[in-house]
Design a protein that fits this description.
The complex is a heterodimer. Chain A is an alpha+beta fold. Chain A has three domains: 49-141 and 204-249 and 256-288, Aldehyde Oxidoreductase, domain 3; 291-471 and 617-769, 2-Layer Sandwich (Aldehyde Oxidoreductase, domain 4), CATH 3.30.365; 477-611, Aldehyde Oxidoreductase, domain 4 (2-Layer Sandwich). In chain A, 26% of the residues lie in helices and 26% in strands. Chain A contains 18 helices and 34 strands. Chain A has a seven-stranded mixed beta sheet with strand order 4-8-2-15-12-13-14, with helices on both faces. In chain A, strands 10-19-18-17-11-34 form a six-stranded mixed beta sheet, sandwiched between helices. The longest helix of chain B has 25 residues, at 259-283. In chain B, a hairpin with a 5-residue loop joins β4 (57-59) and β5 (65-68). Chain B has helices spanning 9-18, 31-36, 73-80, 85-92, 97-102, 105-111, 118-124, 217-226, 235-248, 259-283; strands spanning 2-4, 23-25, 44-47, 57-59, 65-68, 128-133, 137-142, 147-149, 152-153, 160-166, 173-178, 189-196, 201-207, 214-215. By secondary structure, chain B is an alpha+beta fold. Chain B folds into two domains: 2-166, Uridine Diphospho-n-acetylenolpyruvylglucosamine Reductase, domain 3 (2-Layer Sandwich), CATH 3.30.465; 173-282, CO dehydrogenase flavoprotein, C-terminal domain (Enolase-like, domain 1). The chains are: A alpha+beta, B alpha+beta. At the A-B interface, α18 of A face β11 and α10 of B.
Chain lengths: 772, 291
C-alpha cells in the first residue's frame, strides 16, 4: 500500500448518542456546514498529476484519425492516451451490458463522449494539451427521434444490436373487451423532459499506482463493488490489485452509479507511475454523468360513470441515449409501475427503452417510476373531471390496499393505507392567502413581476408508489463487519461496510443501529472500502433496509458473543441478559457490571450478509411476476399561486403523507422527504436539460435551474408508521417516494389555477401564457 | 496570466494604458465564471479592489449622485434604496446575498450583457457613465449611448469605468424582471420605469429582450404626449404603452425563453409597472414593499 493522500477519509466517531428512533446527530454535519468536509475533489498527494478528458463535440460522427503527437510534445504533459491504450476490455457498463467504450473508437455516439486522456503537471496544462489533439471526424446527422427508434425498422441503428434496449409488456385481462364496456374514456399524451441529478460535488477522484502493479483508487461513487467489477477487466487487473476507498461524496441521486473518471484516472496513473487526480468542472460534469430518461407517454383509461377504472392502455417510450446504462431496469420500473397504486382489471402496457444519439440516460432518484407517475396521476385528474368527481375521491375509489394486486399480479403483502392517506392529505389545514405586501410570497419573488395582479391559487394531489431495493430477481445483498473491543476503558463498536454515504445519512443510522443492538455508547464508522464485502448501491432507497439490515444482523451476532461471555461470567441464562448504556443488565438481578469489564482484552468481530426476500423477474410477454422487494407510498397535496398573465408559479405549500414503516431518525427522514419533494418540484416547473439535435444547450447552473429556498415552500408532513413485517425494524425505504408524487401534485395545482391541460414537464412560463 | 493590482485610480489608468488587453475585475461575479468556463483567457487581470475611491458614492453640488463603479449591490440597496428605488429593486434581483455583496454596477456595465439587471434601471433613470483614460481624461457617456451590441459597450481599450451619475428619483420608479425561478435567476426579460413628474416625462427601458438593453423610446414619447398627469390612468393609454414597450423589443428564442413570450411579458410588465408607479404618484406614496 502506498501512503494515503491528504484529505482522504478516516475513521469517524459518531457524535453524541441515540439509538434507532432518535434524531441522532450526523457525524459529518458540522464539517459540511463549516465547509471543512473533505470531498473527493479535495484529495491531494505530493507529486500528483492532473488528468483531463477530451470529449466529442459531435453527437454522432465517425472518427477517421486521432493524432496526439502535438499534445504529447506540449511542455508539462506526461502522457496522452486513447482507446489503443486501454489495457483490458474496451467497454464497460453499469448493468451488465458492456457497451460503453472506455475511450471512443471508430465512432462517437453522443456529445461529450470521452475520446482521449491527458496527464500533466498542472490542470490548465492538461486542458490546453487537449486542444492540441487532432481528431478527424466524419460528422453524421444525429439520430434523436425516440419514437422512430422504438417503432421504425428503417431508422438507422445507434447500436448494432438494434435501437430497442428493452421492450417490456404487461398484460392483464382483455383490454379490447373492456373498452366496449367502458362508460367513460379519457386519454392523453404526456412528456417528461430530461432532468439532471444536479449534485454539487463534481466527478472527481485520485488514482495512486501501487508497487504490486495495482492501483489505489479514491473515488466518490454510489456502489464501489460494481465499479470494481467494471474497472478490473478494463484495466486488465485482478480485483485484489485494486483498492477502492470511498471519498467524500457531494451528492449522487443516481448520477454516480455509472463510472465517470475511475478507469481514466487509473489508466493515467498506471501509465505514468504517478498519482493522478481528475476533477470535472461544472460544464464537463453535465457531460460526465447520465441523466433522467426523457419520456413520451400515451395513456387511455376507460371507467364506469362512478369513476371505477376498467382498463388502461399505456405506451411509454424512454430515451436512453447512446448507451444502455440502467435503461433496462428503468424500463422494468416504468412497466411494472405504469399505472401506479391503482387496481385496474384489464391492462395493456408497453414500455420501451431506446437508443438514440441523445445524451445517455440512466439512474436518477425515482428511476422510471417518476415518468410514469406524472402520466398516471395526470390521468387520474382527467378521469375525475370526466366523471364529475373530485381528485381525491377518484383516487380513493381505485386505490390499492394491502392484499391488492399490482398490474404485474404481485400481491401487496404489507400495509398500504392509501385511501386513508389521501383523506389525511385532503383534511390538512390550508395555507393562508398570499401576503401581497411581501414580494417573496408572490410568483416571481423579489423580481417583482406582480403585486397580486393575475395571481390565481390552485390545489392538486399526487400519489407515488416506488419499489424499494433492486427488483426483478436481483439479489442486492449488503455486508457489514462489526467489531467490539475496549478502547480507552470504554467499549467501542467499529462498523465497517462498503456502503456509500452520499449525503443521505447512512453513517448516522449505522451508529444508531450499533448503539441499539449492542448497548454501547461509542461507535466508530470506518471508511467504506473494498476490504469488506459488497454493500450494494446507495440507490433504490435501499441502504437503510439492506446495509441497515446487515449492520443489525452483524451487531446481533456480536451481541450473542457478548451474551455467551456474560452468561459464563455471571452465571445467568442468556435470555435473562441484556446490554444497555455500556452495562450488562440482568432482568432478574439488575446491573451486573460494565461491558468494558466483561470484555477485558477480548475482541468480538462478526461479518454478516443481509439479503431481502427474493424477487422474480417479469415475464417477457405478460409482465407477470413478484418483481419488487418492497413498495412505498407517498401522497402530496400541492398549493400553488400562478401569475396567469406571465406564467410564473409560486408553490405555496407542499404537504406530504408518507408511510415509512418505522421512523429510524426523524430529522434525517424529514430531510429525505423535503429533498425528494424539492427535486420533484424542480421537475415540475424548472429543471430540464434542453437538448436540440443531440446537443445540450444549457450545461451550467446559470441555465439549468434547480429550486432555491424561495421556490421550495415550507412542508407539512404526516409520517405514518405501519410496519413492514419483513423489513428490519419494520422500515420502508424513504428516499424516493416523495420525488414521484410532488411533480404531478404541483402540475395538477397549476392546472387547477389555470384550466390548462399542461401535458409536459417542466411546465414553462410560455406553456401557461400560450405565447410561443 | 499577469495579475495587476493598482493601489490608486491613476495607477489603474496607467496599467490599462500599458496593457489594454488586461481585463478589469472588481467583484468577479461575472469574470470568474467566464474564466472557469474558459470563455476568456485574458492576458492579464486588472484587479480594482484596492482602488478605494471606486467603492464610495457622493451627493454632488448639482444634486446628482456620483456612485463609484465598485459600490456593491448590497450597499446600493442599503444606502441608496430611498433615492434610487428603481436601481435598488434591480440590485435586489441580482444573484444571492453573497453575489450582491461582491457584484457591482461597474461590472454590469463592463460586461454589457443584455441580461444585466442594472441596465434598464440606469436607462430609465437617465444615468450617465463616467469613464476615463490616462491619455484623454474623462468622458461622460449617457447610458443609452453606452451599449453597442451583445456584450459590447463603447469603452475604448485604454478606458476604465470610474462611476455613474444619477439624479435622485423625482417620482415613483419600478423594476420588474421575469425569470423562471423565484430568486437567483438570470433575466428572461426585464423592464424599468421612472416617472419624472416635474418634467411630465416617463423613462422606460427593457432588458434581455434585444441585442442591448435599450430605452423604449416610442413608449416614452407616447406618454410624454398623451399622459394626463392630473387624472386617473386611462386604460387605453395603459394598453398603448404596453404595445409600444413590446415593439421596442427585438428578442430571440433561446434556452431561457421564446421571443414570443418575451414580447408578451414586456407588455405585461410595462402595464403593471406603470400602474404601480401611477398609483403611487396619485397616492403620494413612497414606501417600499417587503422582500
Amino acid at each position: 500500500m502506498s501512503v494515503a493522500p491528504a484529505r482522504a477519509p478516516r475513521d469517524i466517531a459518531a457524535p453524541g448518542g441515540g439509538g434507532v428512533g432518535d434524531s441522532a446527530l450526523r457525524p459529518d454535519g458540522v464539517l459540511k456546514v463549516r465547509g471543512e468536509f473533505a470531498y473527493s475533489s479535495d484529495l491531494w498527494i505530493d507529486g500528483m498529476l492532473w488528468g483531463a478528458t477530451l470529449r466529442s463535440p459531435h453527437p454522432r460522427a465517425k472518427i477517421l484519425s486521432i493524432d496526439t503527437s502535438e499534445a504529447l510534445a506540449h511542455p508539462g504533459v506526461w502522457t496522452v492516451l486513447t482507446h489503443e491504450d486501454v489495457p483490458g476490455r474496451k467497454h464497460f457498463g453499469v448493468d451488465h451490458t458492456w457497451d460503453q467504450p472506455v475511450l471512443a473508437f471508430d465512432e462517437v455516439r453522443h456529445q461529450g463522449e470521452p475520446i482521449a486522456l491527458v496527464a500533466a503537471d498542472h490542470p490548465e496544462t492538461a486542458r490546453r494539451a487537449l486542444e492540441k489533439i487532432r481528431i478527424e471526424y466524419e460528422v453524421l446527422e444525429p439520430l434523436t427521434d425516440a419514437r422512430r427508434a422504438a417503432f421504425d425498422p428503417a431508422y438507422p441503428r445507434v447500436q448494432p444490436r438494434g435501437n430497442v434496449a428493452r421492450h417490456q409488456p404487461v398484460r392483464v385481462g382483455d383490454v379490447d373487451a373492456a373498452r366496449e364496456l367502458a362508460e367513460v374514456v379519457v386519454s392523453g399524451e404526456f412528456q417528461v423532459g430530461m432532468q439532471d441529478q444536479a449534485f454539487l460535488g463534481p466527478e472527481s477522484g485520485l488514482a495512486i499506482p501501487a508497487e504490486d502493479g495495482g492501483v489505489d483508487l479514491y473515488v466518490a461513487t454510489q456502489w464501489m463493488h460494481n465499479d470494481l467489477e467494471q474497472i478490473g477487466p478494463c484495466l486488465g487487473l485482478a480485483e485484489d490489485k485494486i483498492r477502492m476507498t470511498l471519498s467524500g461524496v457531494g451528492g449522487a441521486f443516481g448520477g454516480r452509479e455509472d463510472l465517470s473518471m475511475q478507469i481514466h484516472a487509473a489508466m493515467l496513473a498506471l501509465r505514468t507511475g504517478k498519482p493522478v487526480k481528475i476533477v470535472y468542472n461544472r460544464y464537463e460534469s453535465f457531460f460526465g454523468h447520465v441523466h433522467r430518461h426523457p419520456a413520451q407517454m400515451r395513456y387511455e383509461y376507460g371507467a364506469t360513470k362512478d369513476g371505477r377504472i376498467v382498463y388502461a392502455d399505456v405506451e411509454i417510450i424512454l430515451d436512453g441515449g447512446a448507451y444502455t446504462s440502467s435503461t433496462k431496469n428503468v424500463v422494468g420500473n416504468a412497466a411494472s409501475l405504469a399505472v401506479g397504486p391503482y387496481v385496474i382489471p384489464n391492462v395493456r402496457i408497453d414500455a420501451y427503452g431506446v437508443y438514440t444519439n441523445n445524451p445517455p440516460c440512466g439512474a436518477m432518484r425515482g428511476f422510471g417510476a417518476v415518468q410514469a407517475c406524472f402520466a398516471f396521476e395526470s390521468m387520474m385528474d382527467r378521469l375525475a373531471d370526466a366523471c364529475g368527481l373530485d381528485p381525491v375521491t377518484v383516487r380513493q375509489v381505485n386505490a390499492a390496499a394491502e392484499g391488492s394486486a399490482l398490474a404485474t399480479g404481485q400481491i401487496i403483502w404489507a400495509p398500504l393505507p392509501m385511501a386513508e392517506m389521501l383523506q389525511t392529505a385532503r383534511e390538512l389545514p390550508m395555507p393562508a392567502p398570499a401576503d401581497t405586501g411581501d414580494l417573496r410570497d408572490l410568483p416571481g419573488g423579489v423580481s417583482q413581476t406582480t403585486h397580486g395582479e393575475g395571481v390565481r391559487r390552485g390545489v392538486g394531489y399526487g400519489v407515488g408508489l416506488k419499489n424499494i431495493c433492486f427488483s426483478e430477481g436481483y439479489d442486492d445483498y449488503s455486508t457489514a463487519r462489526v467489531r467490539l473491543e475496549v478502547i480507552g476503558g470504554e467499549p467501542v463498536a467499529m462498523v465497517h461496510t462498503a456502503a456509500a454515504e452520499v449525503g443521505q445519512g447512512l453513517v448516522t443510522l449505522e451508529a444508531q443501529i450499533a448503539r441499539t443492538e449492542l448497548g454501547v455508547r461509542r461507535v466508530v464508522i470506518q471508511p467504506a472500502d473494498n476490504r469488506v464485502g459488497d454493500a450494494g448501491s446507495s440507490s433504490a432507497s435501499r441502504q437503510s433496509y439492506m446495509t441497515g439490515g446487515a449492520v443489525m444482523t452483524a451487531c446481533q451476532a456480536v451481541r450473542e458473543g457478548m451474551a455467551a461471555l456474560a452468561a459464563a461470567r455471571f452465571g445467568h441464562a442468556r435470555d435473562d441478559l441484556s446490554f444497555t448504556g455500556d452495562k450488562v443488565v440482568s432482568e432478574s438481578a439488575g446491573v451486573l457490571g460494565t461491558i468494558a469489564e466483561l470484555l477485558g482484552d477480548a475482541v468480538i468481530e462478526e461479518t454478516r450478509e443481509y439479503h431481502h426476500r427474493p424477487t422474480t423477474g417479469m415475464d417477457p410477454v405478460t409482465g407477470r411476476g413478484d418483481s419488487h422487494a418492497q413498495l412505498a407510498l407517498c401522497v402530496h397535496r400541492a398549493v400553488v399561486d400562478v401569475d396567469v398573465d406571465l406564467g410564473l408559479v409560486k408553490v405555496v405549500e407542499l404537504a406530504a403523507v408518507q408511510d415509512v414503516g418505522r421512523i429510524l431518525n426523524r430529522v434525517a427522514l424529514e430531510g429525505q422527504i423535503h429533498g425528494g419533494s424539492a427535486q420533484g418540484l424542480g421537475l415540475a416547473v424548472m429543471e430540464e436539460i434542453v437538448v436540440e439535435n443531440g446537443r445540450v444547450r444549457n450545461p451550467s447552473f446559470t441555465d439549468y435551474l434547480i429550486p432555491t429556498i424561495l421556490d421550495m415552500p415550507p412542508m407539512r408532513l404526516e409520517i405514518l408508521e405501519n410496519a413492514d413485517p419483513r423489513a428490519p425494524y419494520g422500515l420502508r425505504g424513504a428516499g424516493e417516494p416523495s420525488t414521484l408524487s410532488s411533480t404531478p401534485a404541483i402540475v395538477a395545482a397549476i392546472r387547477d389555477a389555470t384550466g390548462l391541460a399542461l401535458t409536459r414537464v417542466p411546465v414553462r412560463p410560455e406553456h401557461i401564457t400560450g405565447s410561443s | 496570466m499577469e495579475f495587476l493590482r493598482p493601489a490608486t485610480w491613476a495607477e489603474a489608468l496607467a496599467a490599462k494604458a500599458d496593457l489594454p488587453e488586461a481585463a478589469p475585475i472588481q467583484g468577479g461575479t461575472d469574470m470568474m465564471v467566464e474564466l472557469n468556463f474558459d470563455v476568456h483567457r485574458p492576458a492579464a487581470l486588472l484587479d480594482l479592489n484596492r482602488v478605494a475611491e471606486l467603492t464610495r458614492w457622493t451627493a454632488e453640488a448639482d444634486g446628482r449622485l456620483r456612485i463609484g463603479a465598485g459600490v456593491p449591490y448590497a450597499r446600493l440597496i442599503a444606502e441608496l434604496g430611498d433615492r434610487l428605488p428603481g436601481l435598488a429593486q434591480a440590485a435586489r434581483t441580482v444573484g444571492s446575498p453573497q453575489i450582491r455583496n461582491r457584484g457591482t454596477v461597474g461590472g454590469n456595465l463592463g460586461a454589457a450583457s443584455p441580461a444585466g439587471d442594472s441596465h434598464p434601471a440606469l436607462l430609465a433613470g437617465d444615468a450617465v457613465i463616467e469613464v476615463e483614460s490616462a491619455a484623454r481624461g474623462v468622458r461622460m457617456i449617457p447610458a443609452d449611448e453606452f451599449y453597442l451590441g451583445v456584450k459590447r459597450n463603447t469603452l475604448l481599450p485604454d478606458e476604465l469605468i470610474r462611476a455613474f451619475w444619477m439624479s435622485p428619483a423625482s417620482g415613483p420608479q419600478y423594476f420588474s424582471k421575469v425569470g423562471t425561478r423565484n430568486a437567483m435567476v438570470i433575466a428572461v426579460c426585464s423592464f424599468a420605469i421612472a416617472l419624472h413628474p416635474g418634467e411630465r416625462r416617463v423613462g422606460a427601458a427593457i432588458g434581455s429582450a434585444a441585442p442591448t438593453p435599450r430605452r423604449a423610446r416610442a413608449a416614452e414619447e407616447f406618454l410624454a404626449a398623451e399622459l394626463d398627469w392630473d387624472a386617473p390612468l386611462e386604460p387605453a393609454v395603459l394598453r398603448r404603452f404596453g404595445e409600444l414597450a413590446t415593439e421596442a423589443a427585438s428578442p430571440i428564442d433561446d434556452v431561457r425563453g421564446t421571443a414570443g413570450y418575451r414580447r408578451h411579458a414586456i407588455g405585461v410588465m410595462a402595464r403593471r409597472t406603470l400602474t404601480w408607479a401611477w398609483n403611487d404618484l396619485r397616492a403620494g406614496r413612497t414606501e417600499r414593499r417587503a422582500g
